[in-house]
Amino acid sequence: MLRQDPLRMPWGGGGTVIRFTKMEGAGNDYIYINNLVEQIPEERLSALARAVSDRHFGVGADGLIVILPPTEPGYDFRFRMFNADGSEGEMCGNGMRCFARYCFDRGLTDKRAFRVQALAGCVVPEVLLDAAGEVAAVRVDLGEPRGLGEQRVAAAGREYRVITVNTGVPHIVIFADDVESVDLAAVGPLLERHPGFPTRVNVNFAQVLSRSEVRARTWERGSGITLACGTGGSAVLVAACLLGHTGRQARIRMPGGDLQVEWDEATNHVFLTGPATFVCDGVFLKEI
How far apart are the C-alpha atoms of 209 and 274, rounded to whole Å? Predict the structure, then answer.
């Protein structure tokens, strides 16, 4: 007996199963769905994010990112991003780089720089090509950092001096002598859900290595410890620059790889540059 075509099998509500692509940027991995084709009802995306992100019962990822048609004029695409717990994020730096490469490499656009509608506002990624015309990296204009400030926050029996920075999503940055010694799994969720941050917050611990290099680790809101965080690395650079630890450009070294961040003095915009890599294509067969 012939097996049923998997692309015609039903999924959670009578639709079709879902074709996906897995991508990663410095180890920050996401499941990508081209909803220009798949047309999954948007009210199902949160549940789908939880299902596909599960590293034991799903595909495994830090979250789900969906390519959609824009709802406002002047944009090329719309970006929706869901954390592993199904909560929606306003933006994602590593995710946006992979989003841009997907759109460029899969022929959804021939533009190397284009305008993306996100909850955080207009985001402009630019695909950077090497001499052979292949994608070498992606640079993202994150716009102006917002919500800059400093406060004291108590968690896990101690008080932390935190720098608040919004680079599309809210972050706090805490400088430490040795980020590897920080028990991020213990303190991360406490700071993420601290009463001082009613919408929850991304938590970054940073260690200054030199005027041009900073090591960082991130506990991401809704996903936990990740190997890299693009908006987090960008927040680290802004905080380090504000405190005089670095200049306006620095390499941010994260467990999954390095990111280059620049806080441009002329425009006040933050630019994030780093890798965007395809992992695999597949079909998600599990009902949700």
Answer: 19
**98 is an active site residue:** no
Torsion of Cα atoms, 192 then 195 then 196 then 197, to 10°: 40
pLDDT in tens, 63-77: 999 999 999 999 999
Q: What is the mean pLDDT of the chain?
A: 94
Domains and CATH numbers, the chain: 6-142+276-284 (3.10.310.10), 146-268 (3.10.310.10)
Q: Are 187 and 224 in contact (CB under 8 A)?
A: no
SS3 content of the chain, % helix, strand, coil (to 5): 20, 45, 35
- Write out 196-229 in H/E/C secondary structure: CCCCCCEEEEEEEEECCEEEEEEEECCCEEECCC
The predicted model scores a pTM of: 0.93
Listed residue (35, 38, 20, 110) closest to 70, CA to CA: 35
Q: Which of 98, 103, 122, 229 is an active site residue?
A: 229
Q: Would you say 225 and 217 are in contact if contact means Cβ atoms under 8 Å apart?
A: yes
Question: Is 229 tagged catalytic?
Answer: yes
Summarised one tens digit per residue, pLDDT across range 167-201 is 999 999 999 999 999 999 999 999 999 999 999 99
Active-site residue, selected from the candidate residues 92, 98, 103, 241: 92
CB 74 within 8 A of CB 80: no
In angstroms, how far is the first alpha carbon of the chain from the final one?
Answer: 27
270 Cβ neighbours under 8 A, 6+ residues apart: 141, 142, 143, 144, 145, 167, 234, 237, 238, 261, 262, 263, 264
